[in-house]
Amino acid sequence: MAWTRLLFPGVTLVALAIGGWSAWQAAHTKRSATSDVVMLLPGPLPRLNPFLPASESERQIIDLIHEPLVRIGRDGRLATALAEQWQWRQDMTCWFASAAAARDAAEELRAQPVEKRASWDLESVATQGEALVVRFTRPGSAVAQEVQEAIAASAPQKLTFMRIAADNSARPVLEEFARHADHAATTKRLWFDDDGTCEIATTRTGLQAQQVLMEWFMSRRLLAPEITPVGEVTALLEPVLDFRLKPARQWPDGSAITAADVRATLDLVLPRPWPLPGRDAFRQIQSITEPEAGLVRIIYRKAYSPALAAWTTLPILPAKWLEKHEDDFGTTSPPGAGSWQVSQKDPARLWLEKQRTLSAGEATPKIQMLAATSPLQVRIGLSTQSFDLAWPSEASRELLHAKPILKIMPSPARHQIMLVWNTSASMLKDARLRRGLGLALDREALSRAMPDGLGRPYDSFFPPGFWFSTDKEAAPANLEESTHQLSEAGWLRDVQGRLRHGTEEMRLRLVIPDGNTDRLRLAQALAKQWQEIGVHVDIAEVTAQSYFMELQAGRFDAALIGGELSPGWDVLPFWHSSHGGGHGRNVSQMADPQLDLLLEALVSEFDPAQIPARAAAVEARLHALQPAMPLFTDLSEIAVREARFPGLPDLDTTRGVTLQELLPALTPASRPQVKLEMLTPK
User: Fold this and answer.
1) Which helix or strand (DSSP H or E) is residue 70 part of?
2) Per the CB 3.0–4.6 Å rule, which of 244, 337, 436, 494 could disulfide with 67?
3) pLDDT of residue 161
4) Where are the domains of the chain?
5) How many Å apart are CA 568 and CA 348, to the nearest integer?
6) pLDDT digits (tens, 9 = 90+) for 497-523
7) pLDDT at 554
8) What Pfam family is a match, any one (predicted)?
């Protein structure tokens, strides 16, 4: 996790010449409300790779330049961005022996009474050659089976799903198979996972499909991979997500934003090992099309409601620019569709200005960023009030905190650290023992082991700040209840103060990745607190490359796991029994039928109003089972000169603040505020 290390290890901050700095601050000693907003950065100028921000300051600058399809608003709910509307639907596709049979099936549905069609939530019925496509107004429709029964007389063909355990080198071979004249008519869908594993939906039987695929590989003198039939259905159910783009939003060159840009952005980022929140959701995409101007249609392989939230963190880039800069991406900053754009740059400064099409003729000040500012420069800037925003460094934090003209404000949480238990270990199978060990920990004291003591104790398995978040306050340590839970599980302290169960002494193997001084410091703080209740802790540092495999193999009692917070409500891969057994991300090996059902219901829920209740049920079950103990989220800060932001008192900062929200506070709220909320169809 980026926040558990220094942001720029080994980088020497290059100070500006004192003369140059003095000239700069003199020019800014007396500044009007329309002069540049000056921001001090603790490190070098950002490279502005929208997928690899090196710090919280760079992340927020990128967020000004680039825009996703939808955002999370101040109230934690989905809000408009490039898209002004969104809507979920569901397609049900059946294939028939002939186009005439497909048309007959369509007529059977159109002939149904109006009341029945309404109860089915039917939006449209259409034929595409030998296929019948039925569109429902909402995904996960429970009446799909009824519709299939109504067209059974037309004899829809059965679809067989074939799983091909191949690597990425086989992808061109399989794509050629799907296009070939002998196989295109029977191959209805072709999907690939990141590792090259392929699934084919075909109207052939499993045995027929297996045979032709093996012959296809053998005819090319290739070793046939493992080919397995995995299921059979009479209709393919695929969720459809439509985004209606805002006509006024354009690229800086004036060209329109289209589905091609969305598709090109995903084609760029998915094959690369970059941190991509919502990657699991993007893997489920079957196609991205533009049925009409301004409409982006995304069809998914399966019903997965968190897919919508994934779009809140993906900046959309122009396809034409990506085509020209594929080789130098990362060294050249792409243009964005956000409200701000880079207007000027020199070795130590960077300027952003509001996009002309969005400034509406207003005199909007530019944002001027100064890189690698030293404590001396910060001190001069404070004395002359010549900067408006500053991101604290380790060297300047105390100085900035001490000035009453500045308000220190938190940024939204980006990462989380959990203490995960190996619930399959014989000693740790009892949830009372895991709960007792957790109750002995003081998160506030542990947070001081984080870099600069900047960690927010947090006690939820879901990300904070969303409409479905529980945002539970971390409970303080409770040694009395800890002792009670441990004794209920049969663990008592002996005369020497060691915790024992009969003759067995409590010894925990706490695993952390090697080379991470921050994790080591936190592990040592955990060991010290547990030592006070008689627990002996062995800290094992495992090479970072094999850390996850070590956890999957179950060679630990407890482990510190950190990562970027997900933009949605899918925690299923971490706690569902199907992802355990050493093959998935459920390294705690939690296996609970009730939890599995709750997790499945949550990711299948497409009604935003119902998601908080479903998330709360999952949260309650996880706290009862204790497969892990959430410890902290990260904490970044920004220093704000209050005099420059007269609208600051009206800004709610409880869940953190971003530059997107700070910049409007340059002017006081002089008119009633209207709250806009995007509605989804019921």
Assistant:
1) strand 70-72
2) 337
3) 95
4) 2-66+338-411+637-666, 89-157, 158-233, 245-321, 415-634
5) 37
6) 999 999 999 999 999 999 989 899 999
7) 94
8) SBP_bac_5
Residue type, 52: L
Can you tell me the distance from the alpha carbon of 662 to that of 646, in angstroms, rounded to the nearest whole number?
10
What architecture is the 245-321 domain classified under in CATH?
Answer: Alpha-Beta Complex (3.90)
φ, ψ of residue 160 to 5 degrees: the values are: -110, 135
Q: How far apart are CA 300 and CA 242, in angstroms?
A: 11
CA atoms within 13 A on the CB side of 248: 11
Predicted confidence at residue 29, as pLDDT, reads 43
**Token pair listed for 451:** 């870099």
| Torsion angles phi and psi, residue 47, rounded to 5 | -80, -20
Residue type, 103: R
**How far apart are alpha carbons 301 and 480 in whole angstroms?**
51
Whether the Cβ atoms of residue 3 and residue 359 lie closer than 8 Å to each other: no
What is the H or E stretch that residue 522 is in?
Answer: helix 517-531
* CATH topology assigned to domain 89-157: TATA-Binding Protein (3.30.310)
For residues 314 and 265, is the Cβ–Cβ distance under 8 A? Answer: yes
Q: Are strands 83-95 and 285-289 parallel, antiparallel or unpaired?
A: unpaired
Q: Tokens 């934090």 — which residue?
A: 397
Q: How many CB atoms lie under 10 A from the CB of residue 536?
A: 13
H or E segment and range at residue 38: strand 37-40
Say which residue the tokens 């060209």 belong to.
255
Question: Residue 102: helix, strand or coil by DSSP?
Answer: helix
Q: Whole-angstrom Cα distance, residue 454 to residue 293?
A: 47
Please give the model's pTM, rounded to 2 decimal places.
0.86
Which residues are within 8 A (CB) of 27 and not within 5 positions of it... i.e. 6 or more apart?
A: none
| Domain formed by 158-233, architecture | 2-Layer Sandwich (3.30)
105, 338, 410, 560 from 63: Cα distances, Å: 49, 7, 17, 30
- So what CATH class is 2-66+338-411+637-666? alpha beta
Residue 665, number of CB atoms within 10 A of its CB: 19
Task: Please name the fold of domain 415-634.
Answer: Dipeptide-binding Protein; domain 3 (3.10.105)
**pLDDT tens for residues 628-661?**
999 999 888 999 999 999 888 877 777 789 999 8
CB atoms within 10 A of CB 626: 22
Residue 198 is encoded by which pair of tokens?
């392929």
Residue 659 phi/psi, 5-degree rounding, is: -60, -35
